[in-house]
Design goal:
The chain has 376 residues and is of the alpha+beta class. The protein contains eleven helices and 13 strands.
Length: 376
């Protein structure tokens, strides 16, 4: 019988090799299908005649892939890469929401804490009833002049912002926790709540509690100079995009930040498609060493307010139910930047889109790319 042993071993090795080869081919075929879906949808939105460029990251089957189009700066023909740094606009809200979730995991904040309990200078009739949880899921009811057109011409100091909040009265029928009203001002207030609770700047909180644990070394909340430009090291600034309008007009300098608030920490965040791919992995596959941070990321994605049969609101994230698939996503945009992160947790698919132009049609990810990937 012994002379059969080498034959049997060889047969087992061959079977394993064949199985591995088949698996590799299956993975390769799936990768090709995913890339075909993504590029078919994205290529028409980022042609040579479109302003700026586009960086995309796709997470599927435990792997990240990247697609890039166009220019980070058309003037010097600098191409977009997966490491190019874009303005994230309202994607920053995901990080502040994660800070709140992490604080609740650690027993340092409660979602039902009134904001006036932490910021004692808030004493207005309405704002004194708003809670941390209502800020983070856009149910506070707040809708300040800085939240909607016609946009103000002036900027506001911290003291002016607090005074606006204390004086604010809602339209008839609006109450804390009773409706979903998207509020930029609510997240600026959330920044102040977090800074007061921990007695440190929001940039430090995001970096120490989220970015460093995740290994996101190319994501920043920089200081803002007097010209509204991010202050970062020259080698970092060289990776920044020039922002454009949807018509191709340059808007602001490279590293431009925009804010109606003139106090520190209220500008935008910057990151790359490669760095946000790390966030995709962390959200979809629990790629986080810290169990509290892993739990916090999952908490942010849970729906906490049902808007209607199709839409729901989580902690910054939005839920969209589409023909048997639920997309959890967050869009963001300025007049010179567009950003999107979308997830299908049930299938472990995710996508990041970063464009250096206003009004990029990122809805194609929500309504076409992610549902198509989910059907694979």
């Amino acid at each position: 019988m012994k002379h059969w042993l080498p034959v049997r071993i060889a047969a087992v090795v061959l079977a394993v090799a064949v199985s591995a080869l088949a698996g590799a081919r299956a993975d390769s075929d799936m990768d090709a299908l995913i890339r075909d879906i993504v590029t078919t949808e994205l290529a028409p939105t980022a042609t040579a005649s479109d302003p700026g460029g586009l960086a995309a990251a796709v997470y599927a089957g435990g792997r990240l892939s990247f697609v890039n189009y166009g220019f980070a700066d058309a003037a010097d023909k600098r191409p977009v890469t997966s490491d190019t740094l874009f303005n994230l606009a309202s994607l920053r809200k995901l990080f502040e929401a994660t800070l709140v979730a992490l604080a609740t995991e650690r027993g340092e904040l409660r979602l039902d804490d009134p904001v006036g309990k932490i910021l004692l200078e808030l004493h207005g009739d309405y704002i004194s009833h708003v809670t941390v949880g209502e800020l983070v899921n856009h149910t506070s009811g707040l809708l300040l002049p800085t939240d909607h057109p016609p946009w103000p011409n002036e900027t506001f100091s911290r003291d002016q912002f607090i005074a606006m909040l204390n004086a604010w009265t809602p339209p008839e029928g609006v109450e804390p926790g009773k409706q979903r009203i998207y509020s930029h001002a609510g997240y600026v207030l959330l920044q102040l709540v977090l800074e007061r609770r921990y007695r440190m700047p929001i940039a430090t909180l995001i970096e120490s509690r989220i970015l460093k644990p995740l290994g996101m070394a190319s994501t920043f909340v920089p200081d803002r100079a007097e010209d509204n430009r991010a202050t970062l090291a020259p080698e970092i600034m060289q990776r920044m995009v020039q922002g454009y309008s949807d018509q191709g007009t340059p808007i602001g300098p490279i590293g431009n930040q925009q804010s109606y608030y003139d106090f520190p920490g209220s500008g935008q965040m910057f990151s790359s498609a490669r760095d946000l791919g790390i966030l995709l992995r962390a959200c979809l596959d629990g790629g986080v060493v810290d169990p509290e941070l892993r739990a916090a990321l999952q908490m942010t994605m849970r729906e906490s307010f049902r808007v209607d049969a199709k839409f729901g609101q989580a902690m910054a994230w939005e839920h969209v139910r589409l023909d048997g698939v639920t997309v959890i996503d967050k869009p963001g945009g300025l007049n010179n930047a567009s950003a999107y992160v979308g997830l299908v947790p049930a299938r472990r698919f995710g996508i990041v889109l970063l464009a250096n132009r206003g009004d990029y049609p990122h809805e194609i990810a929500r309504y076409r790319i992610l549902p198509a990937l989910a059907r694979l």
